[in-house]
Design brief:
Radius of gyration: 18 Å
Strand content: under 5%
Number of strands: 0
Largest sheet: none
Distance between the termini: 26 Å
Number of helices: 4
Helix content: over 70%
Length: 139
């Protein structure tokens, strides 16, 4: 489980950094359907892109820890899930967005439970290993 958690955390980190840099570089052109949204949306999108780079760096930091911090992964996955919930609210309030945004919503709602599960499993393994090393198993 630890290897799967580390690999998925690394993939998440690098993906977020790449997506964030893409948004910083391209602004509105990075958002399907927003090419003509204007300077305000472009400015906001580039700012959010920079924030997403920082979010990705937090994932990469977590992946480089030994062991991967389960609590940190849960928080980062929770933020990702919140993004998906935000998209659902937008869908309810404003209707269906571009199809690519729907696909992102599915990913943002489906992936956090996987991270929660992997983090919990890794935490249990570490706790059981520590308990076994201290001689408290079965007492």
């Amino acid at each position: 489980m630890g290897k799967a958690l580390r690999v998925l955390t690394l993939l998440m980190g690098w993906s977020c950094v790449a997506i964030g840099l893409f948004h910083v570089a391209l602004g509105n052109a990075a958002i399907p359907g927003a090419e003509s949204a204007g300077a305000t949306v472009d400015s906001w999108g580039r700012l959010m892109g920079a924030s997403f780079v920082g979010y990705g760096l937090a994932w990469l930091w977590a992946a480089r820890q030994r062991p991967v911090p389960a609590q940190g992964v849960r928080w980062l996955a929770g933020v990702f899930l919140l993004g998906g919930v935000g998209r659902l609210i937008s869908l309810a309030v404003h209707g269906e967005p571009h199809g690519f945004q729907i696909a992102l919503t599915v990913i943002e709602l489906a992936l956090p439970p996987v991270f929660f599960w992997l983090a919990d499993a890794e935490e249990r393994v570490l706790r059981d290993t520590a308990a076994g090393a201290s001689g408290t198993v079965g007492r």
